[in-house]
């Protein structure tokens, strides 16, 4: 057993989680305060210069310094929130635009000759023009060449430096230099070339984008032919936009055992990059929907699907292949009886229980589509080392799931986790606490995880028991190690329960959403578990039975065969391997002529809906880094990986990220709506997020333009009250832009 952490402080280094820091409201208020100071300094400087005092230039220089501080603050906040810093995406746009206008106004007010005012006018036009082009530059700069890795006949694109920070910093420096020249009473003609030089990074960014677009076109043309020369027997597909490579890698060894050639196909850049770094087999990124329906070479006979992406329907439309859903885990959660699974030609299930799950929830799928193949990943799960009552100090794994995206998947016992762990410690057992990694992104859950770690650390220091938590139970080892090292387990509804069944070791399940009788009806795998009430009223009695006489031992063996198939343990995984070979031998389920005339379907075009927690195409916008500038795809903004169906929202315990995870997919044919389908809570769509971000940008640029209009009116001799009204409007628009969501901490 791995060495345990012995101090409570070690719980602070437990992998990714949202770090402590100022609240979003505090971040927004700080940004608003700095923004007000920028407006006051810039406007005050212009006003003082208007009255003929040279101190106005110093105020404008102060405004430039404040803008630089605000720019750095946005980077710090983004990094602290574990978000990418995207300086061209509406980062301090309003203050930067106001600063350019203020410097130009200062030169215009102090100009001793008309041509100097002209130089200031040209400079402000260049500066504001570059600012106005930043949204386009941002989208262009995020374009990436599609991945075609480990595939002869394609090229690995050269990684180019991100010039976005240089574009923003150059603009701010140009304004600061202008303010300094204003203080030094130097002609505006010296400021103009500085502003022109500040455009150079933007120009280089355009050149870089053009090079990448041309490389992307070449890659797009070369990939299908290269894949045809490789001649795979089958394809493995994922449509998720984020790194979910574990969902594919978990099947890798078993695909290799078939002796057949295969290739991975993705629709998104991050997914393709992550997968290419982990596997030696070909990985091809295909973004365009039409290209996806044509990517399969003539040698390919089947396609396997490992998650619930709404993009799956695009490849399923290619009827030259036999389409098989294998998922990435098995549990009684809703994703494991998704009605959209009806679109596939076959559905591989671990055991008979998985096939019964669909009709039990009102989902009608032809019985001949199901094939029992077992759960090959559990072949290395070790059996129990004799009756648990004979173990002198048993090891108990506590592996709670996370709370999920929607109420239907709120199955986590973590809110009462401290009581569960305390009850285990009172029974003189060694505890292995493996939390779900996504729980660390939720502040309340992260705090509970830290407190459980402190509880275990204190007990370890007092008793010497080698408890494990944090990295010692999560990142230093995999879920398989935790399963094998334990003698019993306490868990929630998740696929780790099905995997644990293979060991025949005793386990308890916390009936979080219902009383035990209803829980047993809803989640049949609990027939093999010691079911504990969600309020833990019977926790002591259930733990005593599990760790003592273990009366459920015979029942577990029966449920094991039902959930994991009745295959011999010594060659358990061969059932899956043989099934893959058989599928590739059979090939497509429709005649070749029908396959050639098949109509290409967009995901979701089949009329089916996805159950709560499973997003469809509306929730799957393409990440901007993958969007093409060549007409091959649209430029529609960015996606939130958490919105992707089949995402972490489906995952059960932390173990599912290493050995297994629950399932769920897309739609075709006549998959009926489930009899029980609660509506998910409203989520902000990607389009709404883009509109919100665009609104803030419009307000910031509008404020800058109003400030410029006030300057023009003042120079033309307009009444003071009119100038004051326009300045007030400009200030209001700039301040209103600060109400943008703190989800994008780059805004001020």
Walk me through the structure.
Mean pLDDT is 79; it is low at 1-20, 592-686 and 738-748. Helix 2 runs antiparallel to helix 3, helix 2 packs antiparallel against helix 6 (164-183) and helix 4 (114-132) runs parallel beside helix 7 (191-197). By secondary structure, the protein is α/β, with parallel strands linked by helices. Strands 1-4-3-2-5-6-7-8 form an eight-stranded mixed β-sheet. The protein has helices at 24-50, 55-80, 93-110, 114-132, 134-141, 164-183, 191-197, 200-230, 246-249, 252-257, 269-276, 289-292, 312-316, 352-360, 417-425, 443-463, 471-474, 479-485, 495-501, 516-522, 539-547, 553-564, 574-586, 592-596, 686-715, 720-736; strands at 148-149, 234-238, 262-266, 283-285, 302-305, 322-325, 346-349, 370-372, 395-399, 430-433, 488-491, 507-511, 530-533.
Which structural traits does this protein have?
8-stranded mixed β-sheet; disordered N terminus; 26 helices; single chain; 748 residues; alpha/beta
Fold blueprint:
Layout: H1 24-50, H2 55-80, H3 93-110, H4 114-132, H5 134-141, E1 148-149, H6 164-183, H7 191-197, H8 200-230, E2 234-238, H9 246-249, H10 252-257, E3 262-266, H11 269-276, E4 283-285, H12 289-292, E5 302-305, H13 312-316, E6 322-325, E7 346-349, H14 352-360, E8 370-372, E9 395-399, H15 417-425, E10 430-433, H16 443-463, H17 471-474, H18 479-485, E11 488-491, H19 495-501, E12 507-511, H20 516-522, E13 530-533, H21 539-547, H22 553-564, H23 574-586, H24 592-596, H25 686-715, H26 720-736
Parallel strand pairs: 2-3, 2-5, 3-4, 5-6, 6-7, 7-8, 9-10, 9-11, 11-12, 12-13
Antiparallel strand pairs: 1-4
Helix pairs in contact: 1-2, 1-3, 2-3, 2-6, 3-4, 3-6, 3-25, 4-7, 6-7, 6-8, 15-16, 25-26
């Amino acid at each position: 057993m791995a060495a345990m952490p012995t101090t409570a402080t070690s719980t602070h280094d437990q992998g990714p989680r949202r770090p402590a820091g100022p609240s979003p409201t505090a971040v927004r208020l700080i940004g608003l305060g700095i923004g007000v100071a920028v407006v006051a300094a810039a406007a005050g400087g212009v006003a003082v210069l208007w009255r003929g005092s040279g101190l106005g230039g110093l105020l404008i220089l102060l405004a430039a310094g404040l803008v630089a501080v605000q720019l750095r603050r946005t980077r710090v906040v983004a990094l602290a929130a574990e978000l990418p810093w995207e300086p061209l995406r509406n980062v301090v746009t309003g203050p930067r635009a106001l600063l350019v206008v203020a410097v130009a106004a200062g030169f215009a007010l102090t100009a001793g000759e008309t041509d100097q005012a002209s130089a200031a006018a040209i400079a402000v036009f260049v500066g504001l023009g570059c600012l106005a082009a930043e949204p386009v530059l941002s989208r262009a700069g995020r374009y990436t060449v599609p991945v075609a890795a480990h595939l002869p006949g394609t090229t690995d694109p050269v990684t180019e430096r991100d010039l976005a920070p240089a574009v923003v910093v150059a603009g701010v420096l140009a304004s600061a230099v202008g303010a300094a020249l204003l203080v030094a009473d130097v002609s505006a003609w010296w400021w103009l070339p500085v502003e022109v030089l500040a455009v150079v990074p933007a120009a280089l960014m355009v050149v870089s984008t053009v090079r990448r677009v041309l490389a992307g076109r070449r890659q797009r043309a070369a990939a299908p032919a290269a894949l045809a020369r490789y001649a795979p027997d089958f394809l493995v597909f994922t449509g998720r936009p984020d790194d979910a490579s574990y969902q594919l890698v978990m099947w890798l060894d078993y695909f290799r055992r078939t002796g057949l050639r295969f290739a991975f196909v993705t629709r998104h850049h991050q997914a393709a990059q992550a997968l290419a770094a982990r596997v030696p087999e070909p990985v091809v990124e295909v973004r365009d929907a039409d290209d996806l329906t044509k990517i399969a070479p003539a040698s390919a006979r089947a396609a396997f699907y490992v998650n619930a992406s709404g993009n799956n329907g695009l490849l399923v439309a290619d009827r030259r292949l036999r389409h098989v859903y294998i998922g990435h885990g098995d549990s009684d959660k809703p994703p494991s009886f998704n009605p959209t699974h009806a679109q596939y030609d076959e559905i591989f299930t671990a055991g008979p229980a998985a096939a019964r799950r669909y009709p039990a929830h009102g989902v009608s799928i032809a019985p001949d589509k199901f094939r029992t193949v077992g759960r090959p990943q559990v072949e290395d799960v070790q059996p129990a080392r004799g009756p648990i009552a004979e173990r002198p100090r048993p090891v108990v794994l506590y592996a709670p799931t996370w709370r999920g995206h929607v109420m239907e998947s709120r199955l986590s016992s973590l809110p009462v986790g401290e009581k569960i762990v305390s009850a285990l410690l009172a029974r003189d057992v060694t505890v292995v606490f493996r939390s779900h990694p996504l729980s660390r992104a939720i502040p309340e859950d992260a705090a509970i995880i830290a407190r459980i770690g402190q509880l275990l650390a204190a007990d370890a220091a007092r008793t010497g028991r080698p408890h494990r938590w944090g990295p010692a139970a999560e990142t230093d080892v995999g879920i398989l190690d935790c399963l094998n090292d334990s003698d019993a387990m306490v868990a929630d509804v998740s696929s780790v329960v099905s995997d644990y069944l293979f060991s025949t070791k005793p386990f308890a399940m916390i009936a979080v959403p219902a009383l035990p009788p209803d829980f047993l009806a809803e989640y049949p795998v609990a027939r093999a578990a010691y079911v504990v009430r969600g309020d833990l009223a019977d926790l002591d009695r259930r733990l005593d039975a599990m760790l003592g006489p273990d009366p459920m031992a015979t029942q577990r063996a029966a449920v094991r065969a039902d959930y994991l198939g009745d295959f011999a343990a010594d060659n358990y995984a061969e059932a899956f391997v043989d099934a893959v070979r058989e599928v590739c031998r059979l090939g497509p389920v429709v005649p070749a002529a029908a396959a050639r005339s098949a109509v290409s379907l967009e995901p979701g075009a089949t009329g089916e809906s996805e159950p709560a927690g499973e997003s469809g195409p509306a929730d799957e916008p393409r990440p901007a880094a993958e969007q093409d500038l060549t007409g091959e795809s649209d430029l529609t903004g960015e996606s939130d990986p958490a919105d992707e169906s089949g995402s972490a929202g489906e995952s059960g315990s932390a173990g599912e990220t290493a050995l297994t995870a629950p399932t769920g997919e897309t739609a075709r044919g006549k998959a009926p709506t489930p009899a029980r389908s609660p509506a998910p809570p409203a989520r902000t769509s990607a389009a709404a997020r883009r509109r919100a971000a665009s609104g803030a940008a419009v307000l910031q640029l509008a404020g800058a333009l109003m400030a410029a209009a006030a300057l023009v009116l003042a120079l033309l001799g307009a009444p003071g009250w009119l100038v004051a009204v326009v300045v007030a409007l400009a200030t209001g628009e700039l301040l209103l832009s600060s109400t943008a969501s703190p989800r994008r901490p780059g805004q001020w």
